[in-house]
Structures are given as structure tokens and as C-alpha cells.
Amino acid sequence: MLDVVHRSLTKDDCFGFCDVVNNNSRPRDFTIELHSKMNEIDYTKTLLHELVHLKQWIDNKLTLKSGKMYYNGSKVSDMNYYEQPHEVEAFTMQETLYKQYVFDIKGKKVRDNNFVLDNRLPRHLL
Residue 63 domain-assigned? Predict the structure, then answer.
């Protein structure tokens, strides 16, 4: 089961996150929370980013043990956010998936760029 919730994430200072609802060894219920005041591009990229995390949970690559997050068996909860391997994968995949989405829906190619959506809210959305 997947619930997608739209609300202000200003206090959380992020565009979105994916949570496991039933924290067991084989999670299958999730909530993705998305900031309610994003433009279409940010919304789409954030949703794709969080769906990558959902897949990481389902594939048992991303796990939670004693309140600490692990990715492929390595503890990542103490690492810098942008260096956590599951985040690196999600940021990379969101761009790849977004390009494919735009091409599939609009028949247009997205220019390659070095911009990757930061998961922190910009000032104008606070």
C-alpha cells in the first residue's frame, strides 16, 4: 500500500520523504509526503526521488535497525546527507527517470545539466 500525502513541509525543511508504515523486515506499506507548494518540475522530480527510496526499501537495500538507517548493510544515518549512498542513487535516478517521463509524456528531450534538485526548501517556499 502507498499513501501520498500533500502538506506543508516547511517545518521539516524538505520537499518530501518516504516512510515505512509497518517497520518490519519486509516493508510493504509506505507513506510518501510531498510539500504542497512545489512547481510541476520540482513535484515530479521529488516524487520520482521518493519512489526510488520506496524501491530501495522493497529491495531490502535500505533498512532500519535499532533506529539507525543502513544501505546495503552499511550504516548511513551518521553520514552527511549528500554523501549517503541511497541519496546519491535517488538523486541520480530522479534525473534519469524525469528525462524519460518528459520524453514519454511530452515527446521532448530534456537538456542535460548539472542541476540536481536539493531536498531542502528554497526560501520562497518557506
Answer: yes
pLDDT value at 79 more than 60 = yes
Q: Is residue 121 part of a domain?
A: no
Q: What total of structural domains would you count in the chain?
A: 1
Instruction: Write down the mean pLDDT value for the chain.
Output: 88
Whether 80 has a pLDDT exceeding 80, the answer reads yes
Helix (H, G, I), strand (E, B) or coil at 81: helix
Residue 64 and residue 24 in contact, taking contact as beta carbons nearer than 8 Å = no
Q: Give the H/E segment covering residue 4.
A: strand 2-7
pTM over 0.70: yes
Inside any domain, residue 119: no
Cα–Cα distance, 107 to 13 (Å, whole number):
34
Q: Tell whether 8 is covered by a domain.
A: yes
- As a whole number of angstroms, the longest Cα–Cα distance in the chain is 46
